[in-house]
Amino acid sequence: MASVVSETAFAPMVCLEGLVKTRSQSESVFELEVPGFTVQPGQMVAVIGESGCGKSTLLDIIALVMTPSAVARFEIANGAAGMVSDVAALWANDDEDALTALRRDAFGYVLQTGGLLPFLSVRQNICLPARIKGRRLSQARVEGLAKSLGLAGCLDRMPVSLSIGQRQRAAIARALAHQPRLLLADEPTAAVDKARARSIMDDMQRLAREESVAVVVVTHDVELIVDRADAAYTFETVQLSEQHSRSICRPAEGLCP
Amino acid sequence: MSCANPLKHIPALAASHLKHEWILTFCLVIALAAVIAPLLVLLGLKYGTIQTLRERLVEDPIFREIRPSQTREFSPQWFDELQSWPGIGFVTPTILPLSSVISVVASGGRNSELFDLIPTAAGDPLLLENGGVVPTDGEVVLSAEAARRSAVAPGDEITVKVTRSRGGRPEHVEERLRVVSILSPRAGSLARVYAPLAFVLDVEGYKEGYAAPSRGWPGDTPQPYPSFDGALLLMPKPMLPIARSGLIINTGFGRIVDGSAKDAAELLGFPVPEELTVYNLLAPGAPVTITNLRAIEQKLRGQTGVLLPYVRGLDMAVDGSRTAPIGLSIDERQAELLGIHSTPWGRFGGTLPENGQLVHVLWPAATPTTATEIAVRAVGVAELDFPLRVAGSTSLSRPVVPVELLGVLRTATQRPIVFNPATDHFEMARGGYRGFRLYARSIDDVPALYHRLKSEGIEVIAEVEAIERIQVLDRGLSRLFWLIALLGLFGSTAVLVSSLYAAVERRRRDLGVLRLLGFARRHVFFFPIAQGIMIAALGLMLGFGGYAALAQVINHAFASELAPGEAFCTLPAQYLPIFCLATLVLATLASLVAAWRATGIDPAEVIREQ
Ligand SMILES: Nc1ncnc2c1ncn2[C@@H]1O[C@H](COP(=O)(O)OP(=O)(O)OP(=O)(O)O)[C@@H](O)[C@H]1O
Ligand SMILES: [Mg+2]
């Protein structure tokens, strides 16, 4: 592991430089370029863009479930102070176990539609990430999280019996319960109405701040993240040919302080 | 990095999943149990019926018995050899059925009953496995029927009466014996008395006229009879043709041939006076016996003449050299006619010379000897050694012995004869036994022994068919079981493979989420395997439950046909772990396809899937 862990004075949570991801299906080619993407610890970063510009692709790469086609630098802060894991090297070595372990230890993930396991109760869903990390969650923490997300009465119900919004909040609880350092959320509010979306976004922001968790949230709704995000990235799409499109991810000017 | 072991959470997650989809799980379990239960019942039926049939055979020694179906002679050496055959449990010689009837009176009882006397010996399964003990000398064991008819109980004494008729007079001896046990009726329905072989042989000997000195039973010692090749009749005058042709009628002789003094000298070994008329009496195809010779002497009564039996071509070594002694037994009157000395053992009569004179010899005076005993080895059925005692000298050129001795030695070329130095008598060697009682070690040994005896030309009877029928049935049922098991195996494996595979396909997204939450490929690999094992375990439980219920019903339904402790449908305990293990291994193998499929799930693909 020594080769993939190096010490820096002030390690960002996520540091991406010179990333290229090419996705092609039959004739059509989609190219995602990310010259630079940084998430500082405790920061909330918004990724904004219209449909099909590569937001989910970027998030999957950060979530370590998709391999970059090329990357100059890809580091994720390790638990220990100042230590970073060299993800680029891990991918190069195809060290799936290390990537999985890093994901298990450091990340929480909220899917577009929650992604709760339907065969576990809400409580079991929330406890699962901690358990597979080898930790036990105190019931107080579970109850506390549930209460702060308005899920107090839903803990022992199965996900099918929850509303879409409740499921989404349960997914947030699950993503945060095991105290990750980075929360990834891919359009967590896509399936709910605006008012509810706002409250979900508020909850997430509040909890992330309380727990000092860095957040990367993907959305196409600019309104939702104005005033909330510490930084924002957006996409610039170039249609190279009829079949070939390129999307470049850059920091969004003027959206955030 | 934490030392978490996500793998240990897989079984619980797999179980939760099965519980969540309990209807599908239940159907799968039922499908498996529907294969397992009938297979178990089938296996139980096969095992149970075969076991019941086998035990019925195994329990009763009758099924291990191999009996000769015809009476013939079996030499003691044959029995020695038989003992070394593999698969022999017990064997004892037996006697002629006719010689084995004895009359038995219970002490205090009046009625005498005729029972069959059967020899036994240590280890006799017929006795030991039918509630009896093996009797020692002075003891007997009775069959149930014999005990019923003579009304005796174990511990009682019985009197055994052995009868014979000798010389037209009835004779009998009695022996008191103690009944040590009575066999269960299963051992046979005939009235039988089981006694040690030695006693049975003494009874046989007594019935044949012989004595049993150790029991104080009187009778002959089994002396061999002399036999001859022919006889010479020497007459001072030729006979009338009518007397000549009438001489041999009804005597057992077939032909009477005119001979010369030269012929006589050649046959007898010494010259006879030229003036005597020589007739050669022959019985072609049969030995000449004392009875034949007596009949001739009867006819010659009142006439002058000498009847001299002769033996030809005897092979023997006297004092180490191959000489044929002259056989001669004549009195003074006969000696006078022949112009030689008489013999001290007298003339040829109806019996063998007594007082050891049978082995007396007159040594040629031309080659005097100081020895009193001369060793002889005669070649017969077996080599026969005996001493000749020098009783005088003779003017003849070769040693002279009683002609009866040559007759005995001739018999020895046809039947085994031994010389008993204690009594100075020749005795018929025990020729052999007239049958045997044989039990194989186990019923599985019976067919091989049966066929081996048959291949030796011994006609035997055994329950080979019953045993082979069971073996054939066992093989057939085993084949049937494996065929059906194979069919069930294919079916249930296909069901498991497809169901588990479908479950993985159905739950792709969930498995992807598990990957996202931090399970590696190798962890989700075990998700379907855990499910396969759980379903198999549940199926086994339900299957065993179904089997137990059905077995109960089957055994209950056939209860009237079964002895207590017997069951038509039963499985030995050691089958169960094997069966369970086989099922679980199979379930694991069946889930491998699904497991491989699960490892192929890419979380990036599924997290966007709806
Ligand atoms: N397997 C694939 N092969 C080729 N192109 C793909 C593949 N998957 C996605 N793409 C393309 O990549 C582009 C980016 O997809 P992505 O899912 O990242 O978009 P997105 O920004 O998340 O859109 P949305 O807002 O609708 O979720 C799209 O144009 C899509 O057509
Ligand atoms: Mg998307």
Automatic annotation (TrEMBL), chain A:
Organism: Desulfopila aestuarii DSM 18488
Coiled coil: none
Keyword Hydrolase appears in the UniProt entry: no
Keyword Transport in record: no
PROSITE patterns, alphabetized: ABC_TRANSPORTER_2
InterPro entries: AAA+_ATPase, ABC_transporter-like_ATP-bd, ABC_transpr_LolD-like, P-loop_NTPase
Highest taxon above the source species: Bacteria
GO biological-process terms attached to the record: lipoprotein localization to outer membrane; protein localization to outer membrane
The name this protein goes by in its record: Putative ABC transport system ATP-binding protein
One Pfam short name: ABC_tran
Family statement: Belongs to the ABC transporter superfamily.
GO CC annotation: plasma membrane
First and last residue of the signal peptide: none
Matching SMART domains: AAA
Occurrences of domain ABC transporter (ranges): 14-256
Keywords of the record: ATP-binding, Nucleotide-binding
UniProtKB/TrEMBL annotation, chain B:
Keywords: Cell membrane, Membrane, Transmembrane, Transmembrane helix
Domain (ABC3 transporter permease C-terminal): residue spans on this chain: 483-603
Annotated compartments: Cell membrane
Subcellular location, principal: membrane
TM stretches of this protein: 22-45, 480-504, 525-554, 574-596
GO cellular component, one term: plasma membrane protein complex
Name of the molecule in the record: Putative ABC transport system permease protein
Organism: Desulfopila aestuarii DSM 18488
